[in-house]
Structure prediction request, 107 residues.
Amino acid sequence: AQALIACTGERYHEAEVLRVRGELLWDRGRCPGASIEAERCLVRAYEVAHAQGKRSFGLRAARALARLWSARGESARGAAILRAAEDSTHERTPSPAETSAYPIGTM
Prediction:
């Protein structure tokens, strides 16, 4: 999937691909360096989702990161990213119908 993203430039599901890769690597935690690479993938997944405005993908990545960090004894760090991701999912952008009901510059 990552090769296809690189080849086509289609990045719609990039955050999900990174998250799944990170979770798979974390499941293989017995391999040397797997946990570090898993964390890199999950952090990147969160960053990509945030940059693309894909809140649900970001929340999934944040949940995976929170579980990983909690398993390492870094619960506060996990809780912080989870709070940030959850807060961003509650932000709401007005629909076009709502914004057209107000004159420009009044919202």
Q: What stands out?
A: The helical segments are 2-8, 14-27, 34-52, 55-71, 75-90, 96-100. The radius of gyration is 17 Å.
